[in-house]
Amino acid sequence: MNLGKSTRSEKFQHFETETSAWLRGECLLKAAVSVRMRPDEPPLSSSVAIMLYLAEKFQTPEHWFPADLRLRSRVNEYLSWQHMAIRMHGSKMYWMRVMIPKIMGIDVPKEKMDGALEDLNASLTLIEENFLQDRPFIVGDQMSLADLVAIVEIMQPLGAGLDVFEGRPKLSAWRDRVQASIGKDLFDEAHQVILGAQDAMKQVDPSKLEPFKPKILRLFF
Amino acid sequence: MQLHLDLLSPPCRSLYLFAEALKIPYEFRLVDLLAGQQYSEEFGKLNLVKKAPVLEDGSFVLSESTAILQYLVQKCSVADHWFPAELQQRARVDEYLSWQHLNLRSHCSKVFLLRLMHRPLMGSEAPKDKLDATLEDMKQSLDLLEEKFLQDKPFIVGNKISVADLVAMVEMMQPLGVGVDPFQGRPKLTAWRDRVKKELGVKLVDQAHEALLDSSGLQQKMQNNTELQKLKPMFLKYFR
After folding, report:
1. Amino acid A21: pLDDT
2. Which pTM does this prediction carry?
3. Residues of chain B with C-beta less than 8 angstroms from the C-beta of A81
4. Per residue in B202-237, is it b (16+ CB within 10 Å) or e — as a string?
């Protein structure tokens, strides 16, 4: 994967090390990433905005964010839709299956879990039927930022032990293409943390997660 | 070019205002959301996600208001300040457009939906603690709009209006449809809203919000609504 040119100017040192991690999609898995564009300005938040900024700044290969109006619109369409859909539903799974039992010491009521699963499945179906359809990638023949954002969010429930690819050959085939396009080693490296999350959680002392309780109560109960 | 819209929906209003203010030629196609028209088979063929707004430009169909706005910006060669070419200014617009989905948009919509639809759909008023929690979330989003995104600038990006302000303003207007005034006690945001209205055209903005602000009209629409049950699945999912 060609990462494009890089600049050596001082102001960008902070995110230069972040950049390669970024373009690997790894930072999409981290809690928060901030990029300082100028020292006197607040950092740029929002992973989508950061990716768009970096793609432009480093003049990454065109397929990531095509110049063609219609293709670019398809990327924007996916990036917009995914917030209130797969991103929300995928990460909810992680909270419900891993974090809540760990922090609250109870399982989420079956009804709530079923509802969350239903939402996740609806999002996955829409990805297959609306955004992928019969194309190799979301926008067409080549991978774009849409596929990158999609794959990391779809991998999230895997970190909760839920195999979202089971029974979804179309999605699995797309995942394989994305993996091949990024490079298997890089892909696996980026997902090491989330795929090991369930086991890692077992080692964590629940009392350290007390600060999450108010958020959980508000969001899930 | 056709825009499938319902002016009761904030993302639809942002497109309407943008197209009208910039005199972009289009045909208005009504999708009556409270009547469940988005769930019709015909609309489903247009947009599998079953939501408005939708743009049709010849054979090209596009959903998601922020994507449509950017499409119109590029296609119609509008003034640069709407979606600046300068990288860092553009990043600030992208940052806002990205953040707002799960924050300002989500919380303002929830307030609106809870107060408008809970009684007709569930047979009773929304539980007070649920409404209070939603209002608190909305308050936090408004605080962030003010303190993080706007700060002391006239508009979100700086001295000129951009699509970020347009998108923010229509979302912030939504709770007014159910008698909740997010501008109360917020002179900074009120002044900003007035600036945004002025840039777009005060009469135009008022006209776009007419249906939303007609509370007796809205109540009546809910009461005479034979298609109400079509909205229940969406409502239940939204609040689970």
Report:
1. 41
2. 0.89
3. 49, 63-64
4. eeebeebbeebeeeeebeebbeebeebebbeebbee
